[in-house]
Each structure stands twice: as C-alpha cells, then as structure tokens.
Prior knowledge:
Blueprint: H1 6-11, E1 16-18, E2 20-21, H2 24-32, E3 38-40, H3 42-50, H4 60-73, E4 78-81, H5 89-102, E5 106-110, H6 123-137, E6 143-147, H7 156-168, E7 173-175, H8 187-202, E8 227-229, H9 242-256, H10 264-269
Parallel strand pairs: 1-8, 2-3, 3-4, 4-5, 5-6, 6-7
Amino acid sequence: xxxxxxxxxxxxxxxxxxxxxxxxxxxxxxxxxxxxxxxxxxxxxxxxxxxxxxxxxxxxxxxxxxxxxxxxxxxxxxxxxxxxxxxxxxxxxxxxxxxxxxxxxxxxxxxxxxxxxxxxxxxxxxxxxxxxxxxxxxxxxxxxxxxxxxxxxxxxxxxxxxxxxxxxxxxxxxxxxxxxxxxxxxxxxxxxxxxxxxxxxxxxxxxxxxxxxxxxxxxxxxxxxxxxxxxxxxxxxxxxxxxxxxxxxxxxxxxxxxxxxxxxxxxxxxxxxxxxxxxx
Length: 280
C-alpha cells in the first residue's frame, strides 16, 4: 500500500494531533498509540543528542540521519522543526534540499532572528529565508510551514500581513504560535477564530486559502487547516528521565500486545532496569 501523503491528509479537511518526537522509539510509541503523523522537535532532538538544552549545535547531517532512520521505520508523515534554517538563506536552501530528499514531508521554518537571538527577523529577511527553503524543496512532495511569531494582541494587522507575505513567499502552512498567548480576543480560541476569519477574507477567488496550524495548545476551529502541531503527549528527553521513559514505553507495549513485553531483552542487553512483574 502506497504511503499516504501529507497533502492527502490535509485534503480530508480534518484535524490531526502531531506529537513531537526525537528518535525512532518515540516515533514507534506515537504510532502504536494511534497518531497518524509526527514531528521532530528541534529542542527535544537537540537535548536527546547532546544532553543539554538546544543551543543550535546540531548539523544538517545529524537531522538527515534521524529523518532517514525515522522514515525507514514508519510510513507516517514526518514534520521537521528546522528553526531558523541553519543560518543564511544559502544554508537554508542547502539544509531543506537535503532534508526533503532524506524523507521529510514538511519542514517548519521560523521568522525568529538568526541563531535564536531575541526578536523577529524583518519581513523581508523572513521571506528570503522561506523562499530559499521552498527552492530547496523543489522536485519533492515536501511542504513548507512558516512559523509566525509576531505578537497577535499588540499588532493583529501586522500578524496578518506577515502571514500573507509568508504565503506569497511559498509557505504551504502557517503556524501562528503567538495565538496561544492571546488574551485580547477572548483567549487563544477567540484569537484562532479571528485568524481563521482573516484567512478566509484574504482568500479571494484568485487566491488560495491561507492554511493555519495552531501551536502547542492545539486550539483550532472548523475554518482552519487540518494539522494541529506540538501536542506533547509522548516522551520527555534527557538522561535523568530515562527510567520513567522506559517504564512508560513498557506500559505502551504491554497494553498493545496483551501483556508481552518485547522490550525486555533489548533493555536487559542495554543494561536498563526492567520490572519483572511487567515482563514475560
């Protein structure tokens, strides 16, 4: 059976929760619990690889290596959070080209300042970054998601302007993170509805609709696009949480396999603790 593309999911006009993952076992946990797509979290991936908070230390090679491993073991669509795109537009082009060919189904690029410095990039710089990302994806089915971090409550018109410019620059989906912090329009749900209304208004007969995916809180309305990002329901990274993670995974596998724990032998070989009451 052919892999279902992300565009095919979006054409269903339904909502999908997308848990943030960082390796193959967290992807497997998501798949076994009924999720239909996953997203590599840049912060969780960085923490799992380095043991420290995300300091933009990971290279395109490391991202591509994980993308290839995850897409080899699952047919679920894979989102990749690429932050500011690895630096200058040329680096963004190169990184997105490689990640799209490695198997990424959608790549998220933010409009934050380079190197995660406080503040936003100018609209012109953000659009250059997005155009470079889109050019890198040419010839693949990979979609481009633009993360808009513009303050919604203080400048809603500016937020809408950025979203429209990002769509013009090639973004297939907009991720308006600041909606989750909104208080002015009746909370994040009210802000999401206002954004959805703006998206409909911006879509005349000659313009494609502005697709919007909410951020971590997963607020959405029927007028918004089908993908809901960053529902943190799977795993937490970090060595200090390894035992809790393993116990959580055991429960997942035990529940799905009727009491048999396929992780026992692997965990013993790796020197990890197992609870004999949960093993067979």
